[in-house]
From TrEMBL:
Superkingdom of the source species: Bacteria
SUPFAM superfamilies: Sigma3 and sigma4 domains of RNA polymerase sigma factors
Official protein name in the record: Sigma-70, region 4 family protein
Domain RNA polymerase sigma-70 ECF-like HTH: 9-117
A Pfam family recorded for this sequence: Sigma70_ECF
Amino acid sequence: MQVERIEGDNRAHLIALASRLMRNILVDHARLKATDKRKHHKVELTTQVEGGQRLDLKSLESALIRLKAIDEGLMELVEMRYFGGMTVEDIAEVTGLSEATVKRRWLAARAWLTDALMHPVDQ
């Protein structure tokens, strides 16, 4: 079944679930590579963030865990937007929030993550 053919609310929920799954897969992959003792080489899983800055996935995961402790809804919004590529409209549909509220919360989440990634606690 194609995602485009799934109707409204179910499609948005499926994409939100896929976002969380993608995050988990990427983090598990990075952890597996980091703990591979036989090969004795450093593996860095990085990605691009807005503005072209390279980002270490482990740092992002650590920041998302901290964000979840502060505001789980913001963390879920980041999952949907960053890992799932969901639009503001899709996120509004899934969460039941207005598009304006989703935009405000996305700006807040991005600002918090930018600060958290520039000033990591666990490094």
